[in-house]
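Priority: medium. Attachment 1 of 2:
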Protein backbone atom coordinates (compact mmCIF):
# COMPACT_ATOMS: atom_id res chain seq x y z
CA UNK A 1 0.00 0.00 0.00
CA UNK A 2 1.37 3.38 -1.02
CA UNK A 3 1.28 6.51 1.12
CA UNK A 4 -1.53 8.09 -0.91
CA UNK A 5 -3.57 4.88 -0.71
CA UNK A 6 -3.08 4.82 3.08
CA UNK A 7 -4.21 8.45 3.39
CA UNK A 8 -7.21 7.89 1.10
CA UNK A 9 -8.17 4.74 2.99
CA UNK A 10 -8.25 6.58 6.36
CA UNK A 11 -10.32 9.60 5.35
CA UNK A 12 -13.42 10.33 7.45
CA UNK A 13 -12.35 8.25 10.48
CA UNK A 14 -12.31 11.22 12.91
CA UNK A 15 -16.06 11.41 13.57
CA UNK A 16 -16.82 11.85 9.82
CA UNK A 17 -13.88 14.29 9.55
CA UNK A 18 -10.42 13.61 8.14
CA UNK A 19 -7.15 13.70 10.03
CA UNK A 20 -4.35 15.96 8.73
CA UNK A 21 -2.40 14.45 5.84
CA UNK A 22 0.90 15.15 7.64
CA UNK A 23 -0.22 13.18 10.69
CA UNK A 24 -1.37 10.22 8.55
CA UNK A 25 1.91 10.34 6.63
CA UNK A 26 3.87 10.09 9.89
CA UNK A 27 1.83 7.07 10.92
CA UNK A 28 2.39 5.47 7.51
CA UNK A 29 6.17 5.87 7.69
CA UNK A 30 6.25 4.68 11.31
CA UNK A 31 4.41 1.48 10.39
CA UNK A 32 6.57 0.96 7.32
CA UNK A 33 9.81 1.34 9.27
CA UNK A 34 8.60 -0.56 12.34
CA UNK A 35 6.22 -3.25 11.23
CA UNK A 36 3.43 -3.93 13.70
CA UNK A 37 3.87 -7.45 15.00
CA UNK A 38 2.58 -9.32 17.98
CA UNK A 39 5.04 -10.36 20.65
CA UNK A 40 4.46 -14.01 19.79
CA UNK A 41 5.43 -13.35 16.17
CA UNK A 42 8.77 -11.81 17.22
CA UNK A 43 9.48 -14.74 19.50
CA UNK A 44 8.41 -17.22 16.82
CA UNK A 45 10.72 -15.60 14.25
CA UNK A 46 13.68 -15.68 16.59
CA UNK A 47 12.94 -19.26 17.58
CA UNK A 48 12.60 -20.26 13.93
CA UNK A 49 16.06 -18.90 13.16
CA UNK A 50 17.56 -20.82 16.07
CA UNK A 51 15.72 -24.01 15.12
CA UNK A 52 16.87 -23.61 11.53
CA UNK A 53 20.48 -23.46 12.68
CA UNK A 54 19.96 -26.57 14.78
CA UNK A 55 18.48 -28.44 11.83
CA UNK A 56 21.42 -27.55 9.55
CA UNK A 57 23.82 -29.45 11.82
CA UNK A 58 26.64 -26.98 11.11
CA UNK A 59 30.07 -27.26 12.63
CA UNK A 60 30.92 -25.07 15.61
CA UNK A 61 32.88 -22.46 13.61
CA UNK A 62 30.11 -21.95 11.06
CA UNK A 63 27.52 -21.89 13.84
CA UNK A 64 29.44 -19.10 15.65
CA UNK A 65 29.62 -17.07 12.45
CA UNK A 66 25.88 -17.44 11.83
CA UNK A 67 25.07 -16.50 15.45
CA UNK A 68 27.32 -13.46 15.11
CA UNK A 69 25.48 -12.41 11.95
CA UNK A 70 22.10 -12.77 13.66
CA UNK A 71 23.33 -10.73 16.64
CA UNK A 72 24.60 -8.03 14.27
CA UNK A 73 21.20 -7.84 12.58
CA UNK A 74 19.47 -7.47 15.95
CA UNK A 75 21.90 -4.74 17.00
CA UNK A 76 21.34 -2.83 13.74
CA UNK A 77 17.57 -3.00 14.13
CA UNK A 78 17.82 -1.77 17.72
CA UNK A 79 20.12 1.07 16.70
CA UNK A 80 17.73 2.06 13.93
CA UNK A 81 14.82 2.04 16.36
CA UNK A 82 16.58 4.39 18.77
CA UNK A 83 17.70 6.62 15.88
CA UNK A 84 14.11 6.99 14.72
CA UNK A 85 12.94 7.76 18.25
CA UNK A 86 15.61 10.45 18.59
CA UNK A 87 14.52 12.00 15.31
CA UNK A 88 10.95 12.04 16.54
CA UNK A 89 12.10 13.73 19.73
CA UNK A 90 13.90 16.43 17.79
CA UNK A 91 10.76 17.11 15.76
CA UNK A 92 8.58 17.14 18.88
CA UNK A 93 6.44 14.43 17.36
CA UNK A 94 3.18 13.29 18.89
CA UNK A 95 3.19 9.73 17.69
CA UNK A 96 1.81 7.18 20.15
CA UNK A 97 4.27 5.16 22.15
CA UNK A 98 7.06 7.74 21.82
CA UNK A 99 8.94 7.32 25.11
CA UNK A 100 11.28 10.23 24.42
CA UNK A 101 8.70 12.72 23.22
CA UNK A 102 8.17 16.03 24.87
CA UNK A 103 5.89 16.09 27.89
CA UNK A 104 4.27 18.90 29.78
CA UNK A 105 5.65 19.79 33.22
CA UNK A 106 2.90 19.63 35.82
CA UNK A 107 3.14 21.60 39.05
CA UNK A 108 1.91 19.68 42.12
CA UNK A 109 -1.20 21.28 43.57
CA UNK A 110 -1.65 19.06 46.67
CA UNK A 111 0.72 17.60 49.24
CA UNK A 112 -0.66 14.11 48.57
CA UNK A 113 1.22 14.16 45.25
CA UNK A 114 4.41 13.66 47.25
CA UNK A 115 3.39 10.18 48.41
CA UNK A 116 3.50 8.31 45.06
CA UNK A 117 6.67 10.18 44.12
CA UNK A 118 8.39 9.14 47.36
CA UNK A 119 7.13 5.55 47.08
CA UNK A 120 8.90 5.32 43.71
CA UNK A 121 12.11 7.10 44.70
CA UNK A 122 12.73 6.08 48.35
CA UNK A 123 15.20 3.29 47.58
CA UNK A 124 17.56 5.49 45.52
CA UNK A 125 17.19 8.22 48.15
CA UNK A 126 18.17 5.82 50.93
CA UNK A 127 21.16 4.59 48.95
CA UNK A 128 22.11 8.15 48.04
CA UNK A 129 22.34 9.33 51.67
CA UNK A 130 23.57 6.16 53.37
CA UNK A 131 26.51 5.40 51.07
CA UNK A 132 28.20 8.83 51.47
CA UNK A 133 27.53 8.69 55.21
CA UNK A 134 29.24 5.33 55.44
CA UNK A 135 32.24 6.38 53.35
CA UNK A 136 32.74 9.86 54.82
CA UNK A 137 35.18 10.10 57.72
CA UNK A 138 35.99 13.77 58.34
CA UNK A 139 33.75 15.59 55.87
CA UNK A 140 31.48 17.29 58.41
CA UNK A 141 29.37 19.03 55.78
CA UNK A 142 28.69 15.78 53.93
CA UNK A 143 27.80 13.98 57.17
CA UNK A 144 25.38 16.71 58.22
CA UNK A 145 23.72 16.76 54.82
CA UNK A 146 23.23 12.99 54.88
CA UNK A 147 21.76 13.10 58.39
CA UNK A 148 19.45 15.94 57.34
CA UNK A 149 18.36 13.71 54.47
CA UNK A 150 17.34 11.04 56.98
CA UNK A 151 15.39 13.61 59.01
CA UNK A 152 13.50 14.99 56.02
CA UNK A 153 12.80 11.54 54.58
CA UNK A 154 11.43 10.25 57.89
CA UNK A 155 9.33 13.43 58.12
CA UNK A 156 7.71 12.61 54.77
CA UNK A 157 7.29 8.99 55.85
CA UNK A 158 5.59 10.10 59.07
CA UNK A 159 3.14 12.35 57.23
CA UNK A 160 2.00 9.56 54.91
CA UNK A 161 2.41 6.63 57.35
CA UNK A 162 4.64 4.51 55.08
CA UNK A 163 5.52 1.45 57.15
CA UNK A 164 8.09 -0.26 54.92
CA UNK A 165 9.93 2.98 54.22
CA UNK A 166 9.88 3.96 57.90
CA UNK A 167 11.42 0.68 58.99
CA UNK A 168 14.12 0.94 56.31
CA UNK A 169 15.21 4.50 57.11
CA UNK A 170 15.06 4.20 60.92
CA UNK A 171 16.86 0.84 60.93
CA UNK A 172 19.59 2.17 58.64
CA UNK A 173 20.11 5.27 60.78
CA UNK A 174 20.16 3.14 63.95
CA UNK A 175 22.96 1.01 62.50
CA UNK A 176 25.06 4.14 61.95
CA UNK A 177 25.06 4.80 65.72
CA UNK A 178 27.57 1.94 66.23
CA UNK A 179 26.48 1.63 69.88
CA UNK A 180 26.93 -2.13 69.62
CA UNK A 181 30.56 -1.67 68.55
CA UNK A 182 32.10 0.92 70.84
CA UNK A 183 35.65 0.30 69.64
CA UNK A 184 34.81 1.52 66.11
CA UNK A 185 32.76 4.55 67.12
CA UNK A 186 33.65 7.82 65.37
CA UNK A 187 32.34 11.40 65.61
CA UNK A 188 29.89 10.79 62.77
CA UNK A 189 28.35 7.96 64.81
CA UNK A 190 27.78 10.34 67.71
CA UNK A 191 26.06 12.72 65.30
CA UNK A 192 23.91 9.81 64.12
CA UNK A 193 22.87 9.18 67.75
CA UNK A 194 21.85 12.82 68.14
CA UNK A 195 19.89 12.73 64.89
CA UNK A 196 18.08 9.54 65.88
CA UNK A 197 17.07 11.00 69.25
CA UNK A 198 15.97 14.24 67.59
CA UNK A 199 13.82 12.27 65.15
CA UNK A 200 12.28 10.38 68.09
CA UNK A 201 11.38 13.66 69.79
CA UNK A 202 9.91 15.31 66.70
CA UNK A 203 8.25 12.30 65.04
CA UNK A 204 7.45 10.25 68.15
CA UNK A 205 3.72 10.11 67.44
CA UNK A 206 4.34 8.41 64.07
CA UNK A 207 7.24 6.00 64.64
CA UNK A 208 4.99 3.05 65.61
CA UNK A 209 7.02 -0.18 65.56
CA UNK A 210 10.24 1.68 64.74
CA UNK A 211 10.33 2.82 68.36
CA UNK A 212 12.07 -0.46 69.11
CA UNK A 213 15.14 0.62 67.13
CA UNK A 214 15.22 3.97 68.94
CA UNK A 215 14.71 2.49 72.40
CA UNK A 216 17.33 -0.19 71.77
CA UNK A 217 19.81 2.57 70.97
CA UNK A 218 18.78 4.43 74.14
CA UNK A 219 19.35 1.26 76.16
CA UNK A 220 22.76 0.75 74.57
CA UNK A 221 23.59 4.41 75.19
CA UNK A 222 22.85 3.95 78.89
CA UNK A 223 25.06 0.86 78.83
CA UNK A 224 27.81 2.95 77.20
CA UNK A 225 27.52 5.51 80.00
CA UNK A 226 27.95 2.80 82.62
CA UNK A 227 30.95 1.37 80.77
CA UNK A 228 32.54 4.82 80.58
CA UNK A 229 32.05 5.21 84.33
CA UNK A 230 34.00 1.98 84.97
CA UNK A 231 31.19 -0.59 85.27
CA UNK A 232 32.05 -2.38 82.03
CA UNK A 233 32.64 -5.75 83.62
CA UNK A 234 29.06 -6.00 84.82
CA UNK A 235 27.19 -4.63 81.80
CA UNK A 236 25.95 -6.87 79.00
CA UNK A 237 24.77 -5.78 75.58
CA UNK A 238 21.13 -6.57 74.86
CA UNK A 239 22.14 -8.10 71.53
CA UNK A 240 24.59 -10.56 73.07
CA UNK A 241 23.51 -14.00 74.20
CA UNK A 242 24.59 -15.80 77.33
CA UNK A 243 26.94 -18.06 75.44
CA UNK A 244 29.09 -15.09 74.50
CA UNK A 245 29.07 -13.27 77.81
CA UNK A 246 32.78 -13.79 78.62
CA UNK A 247 33.91 -12.42 75.27
CA UNK A 248 31.52 -9.51 75.64
CA UNK A 249 32.94 -8.48 79.00
CA UNK A 250 36.49 -8.46 77.62
CA UNK A 251 35.50 -6.50 74.51
CA UNK A 252 33.44 -3.88 76.31
CA UNK A 253 36.09 -3.41 78.98
CA UNK A 254 38.81 -2.74 76.40
CA UNK A 255 36.50 -0.42 74.48
CA UNK A 256 35.72 1.47 77.67
CA UNK A 257 39.42 1.94 78.34
CA UNK A 258 39.87 3.55 74.92
CA UNK A 259 36.79 5.74 75.16
CA UNK A 260 36.81 6.84 78.79
CA UNK A 261 38.83 9.99 78.19
CA UNK A 262 36.82 11.29 75.25
CA UNK A 263 33.42 9.87 76.17
CA UNK A 264 31.94 12.28 78.75
CA UNK A 265 31.64 15.43 76.57
CA UNK A 266 29.70 13.47 73.96
CA UNK A 267 27.61 11.69 76.55
CA UNK A 268 26.53 14.91 78.23
CA UNK A 269 24.94 16.06 74.99
CA UNK A 270 23.25 12.72 74.55
CA UNK A 271 21.89 12.71 78.12
CA UNK A 272 19.87 15.85 77.41
CA UNK A 273 18.40 14.28 74.31
CA UNK A 274 17.63 11.05 76.17
CA UNK A 275 15.87 13.00 78.92
CA UNK A 276 13.75 14.82 76.36
CA UNK A 277 12.96 11.54 74.62
CA UNK A 278 11.85 10.01 77.93
CA UNK A 279 9.51 12.96 78.56
CA UNK A 280 7.92 12.62 75.13
CA UNK A 281 4.24 13.59 75.12
CA UNK A 282 2.04 11.47 72.89
CA UNK A 283 -1.12 12.93 71.44
CA UNK A 284 -2.44 9.84 69.66
CA UNK A 285 -3.46 6.76 71.66
CA UNK A 286 -1.85 4.40 69.14
CA UNK A 287 1.42 6.27 69.59
CA UNK A 288 1.66 5.66 73.34
CA UNK A 289 0.59 2.02 73.01
CA UNK A 290 3.22 1.39 70.31
CA UNK A 291 5.82 3.13 72.46
CA UNK A 292 4.91 1.04 75.52
CA UNK A 293 4.91 -2.20 73.51
CA UNK A 294 8.37 -1.50 72.06
CA UNK A 295 9.71 -0.43 75.45
CA UNK A 296 8.42 -3.70 76.95
CA UNK A 297 10.20 -5.70 74.23
CA UNK A 298 13.47 -3.85 74.80
CA UNK A 299 13.11 -4.31 78.56
CA UNK A 300 12.64 -8.06 78.16
CA UNK A 301 15.70 -8.28 75.89
CA UNK A 302 17.73 -6.40 78.50
CA UNK A 303 16.65 -8.78 81.24
CA UNK A 304 17.27 -11.92 79.19
CA UNK A 305 20.72 -10.80 78.09
CA UNK A 306 21.84 -9.96 81.64
CA UNK A 307 19.93 -12.52 83.73
CA UNK A 308 23.19 -14.36 84.52
CA UNK A 309 24.48 -11.32 86.42
CA UNK A 310 23.92 -10.69 90.11
CA UNK A 311 22.14 -7.43 89.27
CA UNK A 312 20.46 -7.74 85.86
CA UNK A 313 19.83 -4.62 83.83
CA UNK A 314 16.46 -3.04 84.51
CA UNK A 315 16.98 0.34 82.84
CA UNK A 316 14.11 -0.04 80.36
CA UNK A 317 11.93 -1.63 83.04
CA UNK A 318 12.45 1.46 85.21
CA UNK A 319 11.48 3.67 82.29
CA UNK A 320 8.40 1.51 81.71
CA UNK A 321 7.31 1.99 85.32
CA UNK A 322 7.79 5.74 84.93
CA UNK A 323 5.66 5.72 81.78
CA UNK A 324 2.91 3.89 83.68
CA UNK A 325 3.14 6.33 86.58
CA UNK A 326 2.96 9.50 84.49
CA UNK A 327 0.15 8.24 82.25
CA UNK A 328 -2.27 7.26 85.01
CA UNK A 329 -4.17 10.52 84.56
CA UNK A 330 -5.32 9.51 81.09
CA UNK A 331 -8.95 8.55 80.70
CA UNK A 332 -9.63 5.01 81.85
CA UNK A 333 -10.23 3.55 78.39
CA UNK A 334 -6.85 4.81 77.20
CA UNK A 335 -5.16 3.72 80.41
CA UNK A 336 -6.61 0.21 80.16
CA UNK A 337 -4.97 -0.25 76.74
CA UNK A 338 -1.64 0.89 78.15
CA UNK A 339 -1.91 -1.31 81.24
CA UNK A 340 -2.81 -4.37 79.18
CA UNK A 341 0.72 -4.23 77.74
CA UNK A 342 2.53 -3.24 80.95
CA UNK A 343 0.62 -5.80 83.03
CA UNK A 344 1.57 -8.66 80.71
CA UNK A 345 5.19 -7.55 80.84
CA UNK A 346 5.18 -7.40 84.65
CA UNK A 347 3.69 -10.89 84.68
CA UNK A 348 6.68 -12.20 82.70
CA UNK A 349 9.22 -10.23 84.71
CA UNK A 350 7.65 -11.22 88.02
CA UNK A 351 7.97 -14.90 87.07
CA UNK A 352 11.60 -14.60 85.93
CA UNK A 353 13.97 -17.20 87.46
CA UNK A 354 16.26 -14.45 88.75
CA UNK A 355 14.81 -13.41 92.12
CA UNK A 356 16.23 -9.88 91.87
CA UNK A 357 14.23 -9.25 88.72
CA UNK A 358 11.03 -10.63 90.24
CA UNK A 359 11.44 -8.56 93.39
CA UNK A 360 11.95 -5.38 91.41
CA UNK A 361 8.81 -6.11 89.39
CA UNK A 362 6.77 -6.71 92.54
CA UNK A 363 8.05 -3.59 94.26
CA UNK A 364 7.26 -1.54 91.16
CA UNK A 365 3.81 -3.10 90.99
CA UNK A 366 3.17 -2.23 94.64
CA UNK A 367 4.15 1.41 94.14
CA UNK A 368 2.00 1.71 91.03
CA UNK A 369 -0.91 0.11 92.89
CA UNK A 370 -0.66 2.61 95.73
CA UNK A 371 -0.78 5.42 93.18
CA UNK A 372 -3.57 3.87 91.12
CA UNK A 373 -5.81 3.19 94.12
CA UNK A 374 -5.78 6.86 95.04
CA UNK A 375 -8.34 7.34 92.27
CA UNK A 376 -12.01 6.55 92.69
CA UNK A 377 -13.45 3.79 90.52
CA UNK A 378 -16.78 4.48 88.87
CA UNK A 379 -19.67 2.08 89.37
CA UNK A 380 -19.84 -1.00 87.13
CA UNK A 381 -16.20 -0.66 86.05
CA UNK A 382 -13.51 -3.31 86.57
CA UNK A 383 -10.28 -1.32 86.20
CA UNK A 384 -9.04 -2.10 89.72
CA UNK A 385 -9.60 -5.81 89.20
CA UNK A 386 -7.60 -5.79 85.96
CA UNK A 387 -4.84 -3.63 87.43
CA UNK A 388 -4.24 -5.89 90.45
CA UNK A 389 -4.35 -9.20 88.56
CA UNK A 390 -0.53 -9.49 88.19
CA UNK A 391 -0.24 -10.14 91.95
CA UNK A 392 -2.35 -13.30 91.63
CA UNK A 393 -0.55 -14.33 88.42
CA UNK A 394 2.88 -14.06 90.04
CA UNK A 395 1.70 -15.88 93.17
CA UNK A 396 0.39 -18.73 91.00
CA UNK A 397 3.18 -19.09 88.43
CA UNK A 398 6.38 -18.24 90.29
CA UNK A 399 7.71 -21.21 92.24
CA UNK A 400 10.30 -19.17 94.14
CA UNK A 401 9.27 -19.01 97.83
CA UNK A 402 10.99 -15.66 98.27
CA UNK A 403 8.89 -14.13 95.49
CA UNK A 404 5.69 -15.57 96.88
CA UNK A 405 6.65 -14.29 100.28
CA UNK A 406 7.27 -10.85 98.78
CA UNK A 407 3.71 -10.76 97.48
CA UNK A 408 2.87 -10.34 101.17
CA UNK A 409 6.02 -8.35 102.03
CA UNK A 410 7.77 -5.67 100.00
CA UNK A 411 11.42 -5.89 101.04
CA UNK A 412 14.21 -5.26 101.89
CA UNK A 413 14.37 -2.07 103.97
CA UNK A 414 10.83 -0.92 104.51
CA UNK A 415 9.29 -4.33 105.25
CA UNK A 416 5.99 -2.84 104.17
CA UNK A 417 3.29 -5.47 104.25
CA UNK A 418 1.25 -5.97 101.14
CA UNK A 419 -1.74 -6.10 103.43
CA UNK A 420 -0.94 -2.60 104.67
CA UNK A 421 -1.34 -1.36 101.11
CA UNK A 422 -4.84 -2.78 101.13
CA UNK A 423 -5.60 -1.26 104.51
CA UNK A 424 -4.32 2.13 103.36
CA UNK A 425 -6.45 2.10 100.20
CA UNK A 426 -9.37 -0.04 101.40
CA UNK A 427 -11.81 2.86 101.35
CA UNK A 428 -11.24 3.20 97.58
CA UNK A 429 -11.24 -0.50 96.69
CA UNK A 430 -14.24 -1.72 94.72
CA UNK A 431 -13.67 -4.28 91.97
CA UNK A 432 -10.11 -4.59 93.32
CA UNK A 433 -11.38 -6.70 96.22
CA UNK A 434 -11.93 -9.56 93.80
CA UNK A 435 -8.28 -9.50 92.69
CA UNK A 436 -7.05 -9.20 96.27
CA UNK A 437 -8.96 -12.25 97.47
CA UNK A 438 -7.68 -14.08 94.42
CA UNK A 439 -4.16 -13.45 95.76
CA UNK A 440 -5.11 -14.63 99.26
CA UNK A 441 -6.79 -17.75 97.86
CA UNK A 442 -3.59 -18.67 96.01
CA UNK A 443 -1.60 -17.97 99.18
CA UNK A 444 -3.91 -20.26 101.16
CA UNK A 445 -2.96 -23.17 98.89
CA UNK A 446 0.80 -22.82 99.54
CA UNK A 447 2.91 -25.24 101.57
CA UNK A 448 4.99 -22.62 103.38
CA UNK A 449 3.60 -21.77 106.80
CA UNK A 450 4.90 -18.20 106.75
CA UNK A 451 2.96 -17.34 103.59
CA UNK A 452 -0.24 -19.08 104.71
CA UNK A 453 -0.23 -17.52 108.17
CA UNK A 454 0.56 -14.05 106.83
CA UNK A 455 -2.22 -14.21 104.25
CA UNK A 456 -4.73 -15.46 106.83
CA UNK A 457 -3.80 -12.68 109.26
CA UNK A 458 -4.48 -10.11 106.54
CA UNK A 459 -7.84 -11.70 105.68
CA UNK A 460 -8.81 -11.84 109.36
CA UNK A 461 -7.86 -8.19 109.77
CA UNK A 462 -9.97 -7.25 106.75
CA UNK A 463 -12.88 -9.24 108.14
CA UNK A 464 -12.62 -7.31 111.38
CA UNK A 465 -12.12 -3.80 110.00
CA UNK A 466 -13.56 -3.84 106.46
CA UNK A 467 -16.37 -6.37 106.55
CA UNK A 468 -18.95 -3.79 105.52
CA UNK A 469 -16.89 -2.78 102.48
CA UNK A 470 -16.64 -6.42 101.41
CA UNK A 471 -20.40 -6.85 101.58
CA UNK A 472 -21.35 -3.56 99.94
CA UNK A 473 -18.96 -4.10 97.01
CA UNK A 474 -20.33 -7.58 96.31
CA UNK A 475 -17.15 -9.41 97.35
CA UNK A 476 -18.72 -11.55 100.07
CA UNK A 477 -18.68 -14.76 97.93
CA UNK A 478 -14.96 -14.22 97.18
CA UNK A 479 -14.33 -13.70 100.90
CA UNK A 480 -16.03 -17.01 101.77
CA UNK A 481 -14.21 -18.87 98.97
CA UNK A 482 -10.91 -17.56 100.32
CA UNK A 483 -11.73 -18.83 103.84
CA UNK A 484 -12.73 -22.21 102.39
CA UNK A 485 -9.29 -22.44 100.74
CA UNK A 486 -7.63 -21.81 104.13
CA UNK A 487 -9.85 -24.44 105.76
CA UNK A 488 -8.92 -27.06 103.13
CA UNK A 489 -5.16 -26.59 103.64
CA UNK A 490 -4.85 -29.37 106.22
CA UNK A 491 -1.07 -29.00 106.51
CA UNK A 492 -1.73 -26.18 108.96
CA UNK A 493 -4.58 -27.43 111.14
CA UNK A 494 -4.68 -24.38 113.38
CA UNK A 495 -5.23 -22.02 110.46
CA UNK A 496 -7.86 -24.37 109.02
CA UNK A 497 -9.85 -24.39 112.25
CA UNK A 498 -9.58 -20.63 112.56
CA UNK A 499 -10.88 -20.24 109.00
CA UNK A 500 -13.94 -22.40 109.79
CA UNK A 501 -14.58 -20.34 112.91
CA UNK A 502 -14.27 -17.12 110.90
CA UNK A 503 -16.90 -18.39 108.44
CA UNK A 504 -19.24 -19.16 111.35
CA UNK A 505 -18.71 -15.74 112.87
CA UNK A 506 -19.94 -13.98 109.73
CA UNK A 507 -23.55 -15.09 110.32
CA UNK A 508 -24.30 -12.99 113.44
CA UNK A 509 -22.39 -10.08 111.96
CA UNK A 510 -24.62 -10.10 108.90
CA UNK A 511 -27.66 -10.14 111.17
CA UNK A 512 -26.32 -7.16 113.13
CA UNK A 513 -25.72 -5.28 109.90
CA UNK A 514 -29.31 -6.01 108.88
CA UNK A 515 -30.55 -4.58 112.20
CA UNK A 516 -28.50 -1.44 111.72
CA UNK A 517 -29.93 -1.09 108.22
CA UNK A 518 -33.58 -1.27 109.36
CA UNK A 519 -33.16 0.45 112.73
CA UNK A 520 -35.04 -2.22 114.73
CA UNK A 521 -35.18 -5.96 115.24
CA UNK A 522 -36.68 -7.39 112.08
CA UNK A 523 -38.53 -10.64 111.59
CA UNK A 524 -36.56 -13.50 109.99
CA UNK A 525 -37.96 -12.68 106.54
CA UNK A 526 -37.12 -9.01 107.00
CA UNK A 527 -33.64 -9.94 108.16
CA UNK A 528 -33.05 -11.85 104.99
CA UNK A 529 -34.35 -9.04 102.82
CA UNK A 530 -32.20 -6.46 104.59
CA UNK A 531 -29.19 -8.70 104.37
CA UNK A 532 -29.86 -9.24 100.69
CA UNK A 533 -29.82 -5.49 100.11
CA UNK A 534 -26.41 -5.31 101.75
CA UNK A 535 -24.88 -7.72 99.30
CA UNK A 536 -25.94 -5.77 96.28
CA UNK A 537 -29.73 -5.78 96.36
CA UNK A 538 -32.04 -8.49 95.11
CA UNK A 539 -34.47 -8.42 92.25
CA UNK A 540 -38.13 -9.27 92.28
CA UNK A 541 -38.70 -13.02 92.42
CA UNK A 542 -35.37 -13.91 94.07
CA UNK A 543 -35.26 -15.95 97.27
CA UNK A 544 -34.63 -13.53 100.18
CA UNK A 545 -31.06 -13.80 101.50
CA UNK A 546 -29.94 -16.15 98.72
CA UNK A 547 -26.83 -14.13 97.90
CA UNK A 548 -25.75 -14.36 101.53
CA UNK A 549 -26.65 -17.91 102.51
CA UNK A 550 -25.64 -19.63 99.28
CA UNK A 551 -21.89 -18.85 99.56
CA UNK A 552 -21.85 -19.94 103.22
CA UNK A 553 -23.68 -23.24 102.67
CA UNK A 554 -21.66 -23.95 99.52
CA UNK A 555 -18.46 -23.31 101.46
CA UNK A 556 -19.49 -25.64 104.26
CA UNK A 557 -20.43 -28.33 101.73
CA UNK A 558 -17.07 -28.07 99.99
CA UNK A 559 -15.21 -28.34 103.31
CA UNK A 560 -17.22 -31.37 104.46
CA UNK A 561 -16.94 -33.19 101.12
CA UNK A 562 -13.31 -32.45 100.19
CA UNK A 563 -11.33 -31.62 103.33
CA UNK A 564 -9.07 -34.48 104.47
CA UNK A 565 -8.89 -33.38 108.13
CA UNK A 566 -11.60 -35.02 110.23
CA UNK A 567 -11.40 -32.37 112.95
CA UNK A 568 -11.97 -29.60 110.42
CA UNK A 569 -14.95 -31.43 108.90
CA UNK A 570 -16.42 -32.02 112.37
CA UNK A 571 -15.99 -28.39 113.36
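Attachment 2 of 2:
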Amino acid sequence: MTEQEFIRNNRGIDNSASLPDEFLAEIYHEIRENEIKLKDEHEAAATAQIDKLDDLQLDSRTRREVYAQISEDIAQKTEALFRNMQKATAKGGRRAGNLFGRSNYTTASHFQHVRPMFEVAWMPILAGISSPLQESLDDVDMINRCLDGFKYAIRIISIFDLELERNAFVTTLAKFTFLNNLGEMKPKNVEAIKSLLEIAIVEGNYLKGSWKEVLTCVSQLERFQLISSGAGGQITDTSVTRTAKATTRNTTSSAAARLTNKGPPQLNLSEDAVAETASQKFVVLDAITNFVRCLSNVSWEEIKSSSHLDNPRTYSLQRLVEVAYYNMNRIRLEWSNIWAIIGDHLNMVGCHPNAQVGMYALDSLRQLSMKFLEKEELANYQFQKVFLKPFAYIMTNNEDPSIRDMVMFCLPEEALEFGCMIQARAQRLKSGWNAMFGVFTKAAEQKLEQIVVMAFDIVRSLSKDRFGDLVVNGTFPDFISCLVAFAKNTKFARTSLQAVELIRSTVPRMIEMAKAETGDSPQPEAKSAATDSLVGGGTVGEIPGLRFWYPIFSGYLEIVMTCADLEVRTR
